[in-house]
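Possible regression after last week's pipeline update?

I re-ran a chain I had predicted before the update to compare outputs. Posting the input and the new output here so someone can diff against the archived version. Not blocking, just want to make sure nothing changed silently.
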Amino acid sequence: MVGVTITAHENGNSGEYVAHVADSDATGRLVWAQRDGIRYAEHTLVPPAIGGRGVAGRLVEAMVADARENHFRIGPSCSYVAAAFKRHPEWADVKA
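New output (post-update):
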């Protein structure tokens, strides 16, 4: 897999994680909104140009790592994020 860099962007009670793939101008995104102290992962979007490279998984991993470091919980509203939490029971500590 080529290099993937994840950046986090926060704007008050919402934000996103953006995946930059080394060999593409396309970016993947995991968009969240905060309600009642929980960050709800609402959408995971990875365009076909960078699909099939594990980009969506890397976005969720970045959010989980951020939750552990910054002490927040994640509400997996997005179907992809919900499925990722089922595959990774070790993330239960940050699941709302």
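Follow-up from reviewer: compared with the archived run. Residues 55-70 form the longest helix (16 residues). Marking as no regression found.
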